[in-house]
Write a structure and sequence with these properties.
The complex is a heterodimer of chains A (256) and B (393). With 256 residues, chain A is mainly alpha-helical. Chain A has one domain. In chain A, 79% of the residues lie in helices and 0% in strands. Chain A has 11 helices and no strands. In chain B, the strands form 4 sheets. A 6-stranded mixed sheet of chain B has the order 5-6-7-3-8-9, with helices on both faces. Helices cover 23% and strands 35% of the residues of chain B. Chain B is globular and about 70 Å long. With 393 residues, chain B is an alpha/beta fold. In chain B, helix 3 crosses helix 4 and helix 4 packs across helix 5. The termini of chain B are far apart. At the A-B interface, helix 1, helix 4, helix 6 and helix 11 of A face helix 1 and helix 3 of B.
């Protein structure tokens, strides 16, 4: 009972921080938080226009390819936002962290909750397109929320490190943007993993999670990668998380 | 309640970008060539209903101590035990976002600062009422004046009684009325049982409000006790004794000036009782052991609660004591009326160069003579200073 009470009160605080973060991001903006929807929606529509309307892909594979691309984009867009927002979350809330007794960890959950919200909102737009152009596995679509929640935690392991490095190295957001581009092109989102590309994809820590995500979302999707390829990344990310909380935390907090 | 035991804090600094990079890549296990002990073996306690001041020169470790107390930084060794909810008043208004309205800022910051969800609405009402900003609730903070932001920040920070309150120089920017209101609030919290720690360079403010003052110097706790004694210690500490360093370290350290002081009322030497309005002299007889370029002689009078009632010196009065000869006796008198309220006072002396004793100080002495002031034949008045007011009808 005590655990649930503690969890609920912690969640309440995180939720307030999430709302505050949105309020700050979109304060004074004409469309407010609607920008987030406009931004993601426009991106999806652009891809839809290029890949579906302009028919850039071989027409014979059009049916499968649309599901392939849009499930990839649905996977990637919220994760990219999580990566970029998560990196700067501590530096952006520096003053607040100094004044509150909440601790640093609470703040790292802000981009995670936002990531879940972004995923939920983007998924509705994408699923409409997918239901028209592809075969959606509706049960898998529901399960995908849990899968994405787990993947978010997996990425959060890395963010625990990046947000601390961002304090120590002042601002690593240009580096993180570059990293996100490398991750994006290293994932089979817009292309099929054949030959050398497949080998290249196997080096991407998000490759297997994307593969599982597609298996959940698209009917008859054949998984192309194996869990054992993912294990070293998982172990490594847990180690990163552990070391970020260990001595590194002490060093970083002295420089906040 | 706050209890600190054997607290030590070592900072890790970086010699350059590569050092930072190495530390980042190695998760802090490598790099960080610069080590600095910010606090060493600190022990003290601040109980319920107690107000404790913390003073010290820049780099003494005051801010580090507050960072450790608020949990921003972690200790290297020792323990900090805090019972109850902490509220910290650091820079007022910091943490407010200029784009958000006053109401939004109060709501979000209030919750982050520790107010409960079920009390925040009531707190918000009270904050705007106390700060007299009801009509500006919906206005973005960027359109507030700095005074309005300060009022709002203070009203929020003090909207409810915290169990532990930490204040860091937050009041230094306010005007006199704001400071008085703040002091009243702290007294109110004291009555309600809050344990309060105040870091400030405003010694008068601390003397007025603190039960105890802690003096820090280069990370060490030098003194913990009565405000007046702590302030005296601090004044001695900030007196620059660089002339000592210039002397031969093998010789006994000796001031270049020898002196004697007398407190004189009429013909009575060093009286311990004087009356409001009495004319008194503070006489200094001095001679030089070695040549010095210039000398300033100063006096300061302190109330027993630590408040500096008055201080001046020859330099500030355009009296330049230069070209002084060695081994020749000189005399100087500060003559003044005792325009002070009844109470206990002490008088001190300073010998230095230039305007104040923080540079090239030869001597700094507190409480060289103590005396009590009584009121006879003078109408009753309040405050520390007596002004011979005439009421004209």
């Amino acid at each position: 009972m005590n655990f649930f009470h503690k969890f609920f009160s912690q969640f309440q605080i995180i939720w307030i921080l999430v709302r505050r973060d949105y309020a700050l991001q979109y304060a004074g903006s004409a469309f407010g938080i609607a920008w987030m929807l406009i931004q993601n929606g426009t991106l999806i529509l652009l891809y839809a226009f290029v890949f579906l309307y302009l028919n850039l892909k071989n027409p014979t594979t059009q049916h499968d390819y649309s599901g392939y691309v849009f499930s990839g984009l649905l996977f990637w867009i919220p994760l990219q936002e999580l990566l970029i927002r998560g990196t700067s979350i501590l530096t952006d809330n520096r003053q607040l962290i100094k004044r509150s007794s909440l601790g640093v960890s609470v703040f790292i959950w802000i981009p995670y909750i936002q990531y879940l919200i972004h995923y939920a909102l983007t998924s509705f737009m994408v699923i409409i397109i997918l239901s028209i152009y592809s075969d959606v596995n509706w049960l898998g679509f529901v399960i995908s929320y849990f899968w994405m929640a787990l993947i978010g935690i997996y990425v959060l392991f890395l963010i625990n490190y990046l947000c601390r490095v961002n304090i120590l190295l002042k601002d690593i957001s240009p580096l993180v943007r570059l990293l996100s581009q490398i991750l994006f092109w290293g994932l089979p989102i817009l292309y099929y993993p054949f030959g050398i590309l497949e080998k290249f994809n196997q080096l991407n820590p998000l490759n297997y999670p994307l593969d599982i995500f597609r298996s959940l979302l698209i009917t008859n999707y054949q998984s192309q990668f194996h869990f054992y390829e993912f294990l070293p990344f998982l172990a490594f990310s847990i180690l990163i998380f552990y070391f970020s909380k260990y001595k590194f935390q002490k060093v970083v907090m002295d420089h906040l | 309640m706050i209890e600190i035991k054997n607290l030590t804090k070592d900072y890790i600094g970086f010699s350059g970008v590569m050092d930072r990079l190495l530390s980042s890549i190695s998760f802090g296990l490598l790099g960080g060539k610069i080590r600095f002990r910010a606090l060493e073996n600190i022990n003290f306690r601040c109980g319920k209903g107690e107000i404790v001041g913390i003073i010290g020169q820049n780099g003494a470790g005051k801010s580090t101590l507050l960072k450790l107390l608020t949990g921003v930084s972690q200790t290297s060794s020792g323990s900090i035990s805090i019972s109850g909810n902490i509220r910290s008043i650091l820079e007022l208004g910091v943490g407010f976002n200029p784009e958000l309205s006053g109401e939004e800022n109060v709501y979000y910051n209030g919750l982050v600062w520790g107010f409960r969800l079920d009390e925040i609405e009531e707190v918000t009402e009270r904050v705007f009422e106390i700060s007299n900003l009801i009509e500006f609730r919906k206005t973005p903070i960027k359109n507030y004046s700095s005074g309005m932001i300060m009022r709002l920040g203070f009203a929020l920070a003090t909207a409810t009684v915290p169990e532990v309150l930490i204040v860091d120089e937050a009041l230094a920017v306010g005007d006199a009325i704001f400071q008085q209101k703040s002091l009243e609030k702290f007294r109110e919290f004291k009555e309600a049982g809050s344990a309060t720690l105040i870091v400030s360079h405003d010694l008068t403010l601390l003397a007025q409000i603190c039960d105890r003052i802690i003096l820090l110097d280069k990370g060490k706790l030098i003194y913990d006790g009565l405000p007046q004694m702590a302030i005296q210690e601090y004044m001695k500490q900030i007196a620059d004794t660089s002339w000592q360093k210039k002397l031969d370290p093998n010789k006994d350290v000796q001031s270049p000036i020898q002196f004697q002081c007398k407190f004189i009322k009429a013909d009575i030497i060093n009286p311990t009782l004087v009356f409001v309005g009495d004319l008194v002299d503070w006489e200094i007889t001095y001679f030089l052991n070695e040549p010095i370029p210039q000398l300033t002689i100063g006096i300061h009078i302190d109330h027993s609660n630590g408040i500096r009632v008055y201080g001046t010196n020859t330099f500030q009065n355009d009296i330049l004591l230069d070209n002084l000869e060695i081994n020749k006796e000189y005399k100087l008198r500060f003559q003044f009326p005792i325009n002070l309220a009844p109470g206990k006072y002490s008088i001190g002396l300073s010998l230095h160069q230039g305007d104040n004793h923080t540079m090239n100080c030869y001597f700094w002495g507190e409480g060289l003579h103590s005396f009590e002031v009584e009121r006879v034949g003078i109408p009753k008045f309040t405050g520390l200073t007596y002004l011979p007011i005439k009421i004209i009808l």
